[in-house]
Amino acid sequence: MDAATQTIKVGLQIMKDWAEKNIEDINKFAVFPTGYFGMVTPSNGLELYNGNIRLIDRTGKELECFDPATYLDQIAEHVEPWSYLKFPYYKKLGYPEGVYRVGPLGRLNVADKIDTPMANEEHKIFKTLSGGRPVENTLHYHYARLIEALFAVERVQVLCEDKDILSTDILNTRKNWTGHGVGVLEAPRGNAHP
After folding, report:
1. Taking Cα atoms as reference points, which of 135, 77, 72 lies closest to residue 104?
2. How confident is the model at residue 175 (pLDDT cuts 50, 70, 90)?
3. For residues 72 and 78, what is the distance between their CA atoms, to the nearest angstrom?
4. What integer pLDDT is reported at residue 47 of this predicted model?
5. Are strands 185-186 and 35-40 parallel, antiparallel or unpaired?
6. ω into 188 cis (within 30 of 0)
7. DSSP state of 100
8. What pTM value is reported for the model?
């Protein structure tokens, strides 16, 4: 874990040095206001696996924080004739006003904190980039991704030290389960998927 942490710290420094030298490009390449969408803990911390969905507007104001099971009540998809893609949007604002960004930039913008110490310190620096508003600079996706990598390494360390993680006391041996459910996780390409 120490080697991974050190590698990520080197990457963070490379990114910060590059950003300082190229701030003019960062401030003009694909900078646009939008909402942001991502998964959070109950205290609005960064979450990748099991949490609620938080949506903020372009000023950082929370629009919704909802259970993933109600995803279809909150989010709709718009289709353009020129694309096979679907364009998700927040129903209450409609399309295109309700469009939001996801991925590392979205997740770090919606999170108020990160529940691991080193990543949380980087997150505090990240939050200063826009003076308290969401970070809109698309090139900061790279910085956000490195902060998430640091969080992941710290979380893996915590999990590896958890004596109960392989306990048979938590093993579900039920064989004939039936029912309906919705799951959500942050996918590698960045979207929260219920």
Report:
1. 135
2. confident
3. 13
4. 94
5. unpaired
6. no
7. E
8. 0.86
Partners of 185 in the β-ladder:
193
Residue 108 has pLDDT above 90, yes or no: yes
For 100, phi then psi, to 5°, come to -140, 160
b/e map 21-42, b = 16+ CB within 10 Å? eeeeebeeeeeeebbbbbbbbe
Q: How high is the pLDDT of residue 192?
A: 47
At 80, list the tokens: 């353009």
pLDDT digit string, tens, across residues 120-174: 999 999 999 998 899 999 999 999 999 999 999 999 998 888 888 877 776 667 7
> Cβ–Cβ contacts within 10 Å for residue 170, how many?
8
Dihedral-angle region of residue 168 (phi above 0 means left; psi in -120 to 50 means alpha; beta otherwise)? alpha
Nearest Cα to Cα of residue 37 among 73, 69, 62, 70: 62
Unique residue bearing structure tokens 């998964």: 39
Residue 28's alpha-carbon distances to 23, 114, 128, 140, in angstroms, are 9, 28, 18, 12
Task: Report the candidate in 3, 1, 5 with the shortest Cα–Cα distance to residue 119.
Answer: 5
pLDDT digits (tens, 9 = 90+) for 39-79: 999 999 999 988 999 999 999 999 999 999 899 999 999 99
| Residue pair 80/70 in contact by the 8 Å Cβ criterion | no
* Cα–Cα distance for residue pair 28/44, rounded to 1 Å: 30
Cα–Cα distance for residue pair 79/55, rounded to 1 Å? 21
Q: What share of the chain is helix, strand, coil (3-state, %, to 5)?
A: 40, 20, 40
